[in-house]
Design goal:
By secondary structure, this protein is of the alpha/beta class. It is 29% helix and 34% strand. The structure holds prephenic acid.
Amino acid sequence: MKEKVAIQGIAGSFHHQVAREYFGNDVEVEECMSFQEVVANLLAGRSGKAVMAIENSIVGSILPNYALIDDNNLRITGEHYIPIQMNMMAVPGQKIEDIKKVYSHPMALLQCKEFFKNYPHIKLVEDEDTASVAKRISENGKKHVAALASRAAANLFDLEILAENVHTLKSNSTRFLVLQKNNEDLKENISDKASMKFILESRRGSLAEVLEIISDHKLDMSKIQSVPVGNTPWKYAFFVDVLFNMPGDFEEALALLMKKTDRLTVLGTYKNKWL
Ligand SMILES: O=C(O)C(=O)C[C@]1(C(=O)O)C=C[C@@H](O)C=C1
């Protein structure tokens, strides 16, 4: 049986594009309307893998997704980056001046905030997914509203692009993680990247010691993200991604990091896809 992949959004969404690029064009997807639903789908076994956006080059990390991965004990088995081009689209025959509201995924709206400063008459409204908004506008034939979504969504739902590439910086890219349940068998994969999470004592030099271990073992840290720890105000968990040439270097560093940190977990080792 073919493996199903849970995605946030529907066909025409950026998650859908990633699922097709990563798993092949004939991938079978489970369309979910929130990141929580993606995780629930995976945990219930309706899908074997999931794709989840984790950070965007313009607006930064999607912090709640770090918590979703960690709290639900998910495993990262891969990553994928895609360039993101945002387009404003509506039922054909209208001009930007006719549009009163633009609906899209919150991350998409954030990526295009600058553009809309020139159109103060347009109200930006958060919705579940870029493509599902395009679909709804098309099905209802509704005027005076637009979606922010991919060119694929405009083609799929016969909408007209009123403004293309409306994201704030030309080079806009989103990083996605491929996830699975932790207790499921891992196919042996070649890895040169690891994601881990740990908590540090609030003590002078505690983070510096961690960074020194990382550097001493020739690990290249590609990301560090602090996230507040649940019930304790101003206490942080650190999510760190490192790149390595020799898996042995990572194993050695890990053994030392275990001693210097609290509750260290390796969220996954996988192949670095950053171009
Ligand atoms: O709404 C979509 O099309 C999505 O795939 C979601 C999402 C995100 O969660 O960041 C994916 C990529 C873009 O950064 C904007 C939106």
